[in-house]
Amino acid sequence: MNYFALLCIGMTILGRSLIATIVFALLLTVHLSSCTDSTGDGHCIMPADVELCRGDVVFRLGGGMESHAVMMMDTHGRYSHVGIVVDTLDRLMIVHAVPGEPDFDGDVDRVKVDSIEKFFGSVYANRGEVVRCSDSAIARKASENAMAICRRGTLFDHDYNSSDTTKMYCTELVMYAYEKAGLRLTEREPHSISLPLLKAEVYYPSDIYDCKKLKSIRKF
Q1: Residue 138: is it exposed, middle or buried by C-beta count within 10 angstroms (0-12/13-18/19+)?
Q2: Is it the case that residue 23 has pLDDT exceeding 50?
Q3: What is the chain's mean pLDDT, rounded?
Q4: Mapping DSSP to helix (H, G, I), strand (E, B) and coil, where does residue 97 land?
Q5: What is the tally of helices (H) and strands (E) in the chain?
Q6: What would the pLDDT profile of 59-98 be if each residue is shown by its tens digit?
Q7: What distance in Å separates the CA atoms of residue 213 and residue 123, rounded to the nearest whole number?
Q8: What are the phi and psi torsion angles at 206 (to 5°)?
Q9: What is the tens place of the pLDDT at every residue in 140-151?
Q10: What average pLDDT does this structure show over 46-71?
C-alpha cells in the first residue's frame, strides 16, 4: 500500500486538522521503522505440513497500518496481501509485489521473491491461506510468468495503475501472471479509489479470492 495513500486515509479518518495529521504521520513513521527492523521476520505461521505447488496463490493478513488500510477499503475481504508460489529450482518460494520490505539498505519497492518463511513470517502475517488453481498446467505457466516479471526488475506500482504493467502492485501481479497463462481470475470491474493524493482503479485481494477456479487448500 502506498504510504502517501495511507496518510490520506489517516487524514480522512482523523480529520484534516494539523494536529491530527501530525499524530497520524508520527504513528506511521513508528510503524514503518518496525517493519524494516533487521531483527528478523518472526516465526512462520504456515504449518509445516502444508505442501505447496507451483502457481498456488497465497494470501496473508498483517497487523500493520498498511494492512488495516487495505481492509478498510476491501470491506468484503479477508486478506490484505497476495502472492504466487514459484519454483526457483533450488526450492519453492513466493513472488509478490510489496512496498516497505527492503532486502538491503537502499532497496527499492519492487516485485520480489521471498522465502515461504519470510512471506508468512509473524512480522508480516497474522493469518494466511493457500488456494490452488484447478488446472495445474495453467498454474505452472502462471508461476513462470510471475518469475519472469520478478527477474526483469519490475518496480512496485505506487500509482496502482491496473492498465500499466511496467510497474505492478500485488493483486495486479497475480492477475496478470494468470491471465497470460490463459485464466482470468475475475470478471469484476476494478474498484475506484478517490483520495486527496491517490485516484486509481484497483483490484483487491478479495477479487482473486472469490475466483471459482481456485480452491482453498489450507487456512491458518
Answers
A1: middle
A2: no
A3: 86
A4: strand
A5: 7, 10
A6: 999 988 889 889 999 988 999 999 999 999 999 999 999 9
A7: 30
A8: -65, -25
A9: 999 999 999 999
A10: 95
Give me the residue label for grid cell 502457481.
Answer: 55
Q: Cβ distance 213 to 133 under 8 Å?
A: yes
Cell digits for 98? 510489496
AA letter at 46: M
**pLDDT surpasses 80 at 133:** yes
**Cell numbers representing residue 4 in the block:** 502517501
Strand ranges across the sheet with 92-98: 167-168, 155-156, 110-114, 92-98, 81-87, 57-61, 127-133, 214-219
d(CA 50, CA 68): 27
Number of residues that this document lists for the chain: 220
Strands 57-61 and 81-87: antiparallel
Place of cell 497487523: 63
| Side chain identity at residue 44, one-letter code | C
pLDDT exceeds cutoff 90 at 169: yes
121: which DSSP letter? Answer: B
* pTM to 2 decimal places: 0.83
Q: 58: which strand partners?
A: 83, 130
Can you tell me the distance from the alpha carbon of 169 to that of 87, in angstroms, rounded to the nearest whole number? Answer: 21
- Going by C-alpha positions, the residue among 128, 139, 127, 70 that lies closest to residue 98 is 70
Say what angle helices 18-35 and 65-73 make with each other, to 10 degrees: 120
